[in-house]
What we know:
Blueprint: H1 2-42, E1 44-48, E2 63-67, E3 81-85, E4 97-105, E5 109-113, E6 116-119, E7 122-123, E8 138-142, E9 147-151, H2 163-166, E10 169-170, E11 174-183, E12 189-190
Antiparallel strand pairs: 1-2, 2-11, 3-4, 3-11, 4-9, 5-6, 5-8, 6-7, 9-10, 11-12
Amino acid sequence: MGLPLLNSHRKELSENTLVSEIWDWGKSLLIALVSVAVVNQFIITQCKVVGYSMQPTLLQGERLVINRLIYDFRAPHRGEVITFADPDANQPKPVKNLVKRVVAVAGDDVEVRNGLLYINGSELKESYIDIVIEDGDWGPYKVPKAQVFVLGDNRHANASRDSRIFNAVPTRLIIGRAEFVVWPLSKIREL
Length: 191
């Protein structure tokens, strides 16, 4: 009589241990998922480069790590690559987010003359591009308060839909600063 009772007790303990183990795994998984969601929403995220407007710096299909937190502490600086919500709601096929380079900040005067970019009357030396701007002269344009002027690094004619088309980008639309290329693995690098 004692043996069936002992086996029943062991079975009950085993079932309780299994339920406890599943509960522990479930809590751990839930904590991990919530942590990933919080990090993705507020600290870092990733995006995929779509199109050719940032060549030669970024190539179609590369994946970027985006620092979402940096602009909570300071304004964007010239030369930084950012991602932001498309400010042109009238675009026939709106792109959800764009990736461009900040070339001017609030208060700057922007102008394109003879294929060269001028900020506040001085030519901006841009080591990240390989050609002059082919779209013709543009500006002058004064960047409004709390906005940035962005250009794609691909300066071939009509290669980039940027601030020359939709003007400056309000900083409230900025998602974050591109920090790294993480895919493909052969192209991992800091920006």
